C-alpha cells in the first residue's frame, strides 16, 4: 500500500487521506460524506483557494476567468469536459477574478482566461487564452511531465 495522498474536499474543505490506488474508486469525504471528485470545476475563492493549492497532494488546475469575458464563457464547457477527464488525477478549479480581485492580483493575472497549473503548492505552468478540451488536456499533460 502506498502513502496516502491528501485530498481537500470540494464541499467542506476538509483534508482527507486517500490511498493513491483508491483514487479511482469514488472516494468520499470523511467529514461530510460527499464525493471528493465531482467531475466538475470547483468554484474557489480566498482561503478555500489557498487550502486546495497548498494542502492537496494532487496537482491543481486553475481557470482564472470573469463572467463578462466572452472567451471565458466560450471555454467554460471545454474546461468542464476536461475536468471530467482529468479527475481524480488533478483537482480542477475556477476562480472568478471579478469577485476575487485579490487572488488575480496576487497571482499576476493580466489576461483572462488564464490557466495555471499548481503542484506541491507552487505554480508550475501558465497559459493565457481560451482553449478547447483537447488543447487543455495536451497542455496539462506536457506540463506535468516536467522538463525534458
UniProtKB/TrEMBL annotation:
Family classification: Belongs to the thioredoxin family.
PANTHER family membership: GEO12009P1 (PTHR45663:SF11)
InterPro entries: Thio2_N, Thioredoxin, Thioredoxin-like_sf, Thioredoxin_CS, Thioredoxin_domain
Cellular component aspect of the GO annotation: cytosol
Protein name per its UniProtKB record: Thioredoxin
NCBIfam families per UniProt: PRK10996.1, thioredoxin
Alphabetically ordered keywords of this record: Disulfide bond, Electron transport, Metal-binding, Redox-active center, Transport
One Pfam assignment: Thioredoxin
Residue ranges of domain Thioredoxin in the record: 20-145
